[in-house]
Amino acid sequence: MAVMDAGRVRQLGTPVEVFRRPANLFVAGFIGSTPMNLLEATVDDGGLRVGRSRLPVPADAGPHLADGDKVVVGVRPEYAELAPSERPGALAGRVTLLESLGSAFLVSVESDGVRAQVTVPEGRQPAVGDHAFLVPDPERLLVYRRDDGELVGAGQPAGDAAAQGLRATSP
Predict the structure, then answer these.
(1) Would you say residue 107 lies in a domain?
(2) What confidence category does residue 136 fall into, taking pLDDT thresholds of 50, 70 and 90?
């Protein structure tokens, strides 16, 4: 699979690779039937500060980040859960919108001007106005540099290396 933007190859890989590890913010915002949450954050004392909440730094991104770095945290709604109470690594907020997806609901949680979404099975959706704690799967968090939009960290899928080679020769 190739994802192109204005005639440039932005990422090559299998559909699963591209979905799980978009190489940049363009691909992250383009791929997926529920949009990836792209949350502005600041690296702060070894964590990712999103509003008043604090998320863990993914292991593969940690060595490439320093306190004060401005980043974008990516987490798919499918790779997060709603917790019944506050816990470390959660975005605390209020439910502002419920969207039926058929057998699941897309739940929007807002806090400090930050909006993130999570999918929950039908029957487990909270009510609008409820307090909510959106907990991203720390193994599935992605971090992008805010300045160039590129994925931070090692372990890029092989398809991404191929896209880098094509990018240099694309018009």
Answers:
(1) yes
(2) very high
Q: Which amino acid is at 58?
A: P
Indicate the SS3 state at residue 77. Answer: helix
User: 61 with 43: CB under 8 angstroms?
Assistant: no
pLDDT tens for 42-76 read: 999 989 999 989 999 999 999 999 999 999 999 99
> DSSP 3-state assignment of 23?
coil
Amino acid at 27: V
Residue 115 belongs to domain spanning: 22-155
**pLDDT per position as a tens digit, 71-82:** 999 999 999 999
> Considering its fold, how many domains does the chain have in total?
1
Q: Are strands 8-12 and 53-56 parallel, antiparallel or unpaired?
A: unpaired
Longest dimension (CA), the chain: 52
Strand ranges in the chain using DSSP code E only, listed in sequence order: 2-5, 8-12, 37-44, 47-50, 53-56, 70-75, 80-83, 91-100, 104-111, 114-121, 131-136, 142-145
Residue 135's CATH number: 2.40.50.140
SS3 state at 152: coil
The whole-model pTM stands at 0.85
Block residue for tokens 């502005």: 40
